[in-house]
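User: Reviewer 2 asked us to show a designed sequence for the structure in our supplementary figure. I'm pasting the structure tokens here. Could you produce the per-position amino acids so we can include them in the response letter?
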């Protein structure tokens, strides 16, 4: 479904369709399989329901699993779809999947990264109130 594209991303093709939800989804079985293959470290018990980070055109967003979404399909919020060149969905589109470290970096900017074991990384007390400034 995805192949190596660069040090930071895999490239794949998925059908893109709108959803009335306020977040993106793909079929839960595929989500779990990709999560295991791409984001799991193999160290102990790991959650396989963490969001994947994908990029459609210029937007990065977390993707969650939902068994109601058809296989090989990415369901994105209608508001996000309106900002793309996708016309007449479902439309087969190139989609980037962030590799583990890139996903970690992107989610840390919005406070959404949870490392294996389920504990959030704590940046409080780091002495850096502007930890993302200049990056």
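Assistant: Here is a per-position design you can include in the supplement:
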């Amino acid at each position: 479904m995805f192949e190596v594209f660069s040090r930071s991303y895999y490239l794949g093709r998925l059908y893109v369709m709108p959803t009335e939800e306020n977040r993106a989804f793909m079929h839960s079985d595929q989500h779990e399989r990709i999560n295991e293959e791409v984001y799991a470290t193999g160290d102990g018990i790991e959650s396989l329901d963490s969001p994947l980070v994908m990029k459609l055109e210029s937007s990065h967003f977390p993707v969650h699993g939902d068994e109601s979404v058809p296989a090989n399909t990415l369901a994105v919020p209608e508001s996000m779809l309106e900002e793309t060149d996708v016309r007449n969905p479902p439309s087969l589109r190139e989609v980037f999947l962030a590799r583990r470290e890139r996903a970690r970096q992107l989610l840390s900017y919005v406070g959404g990264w949870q490392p294996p074991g389920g504990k959030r990384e704590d940046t409080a007390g780091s002495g850096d109130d502007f930890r993302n400034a200049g990056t």
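For the response letter, you might also mention the following. The two ends are 31 Å apart (CA to CA). The beta strands are 2-4, 9-19, 24-26, 52-56, 59-65, 73-77, 91-98.
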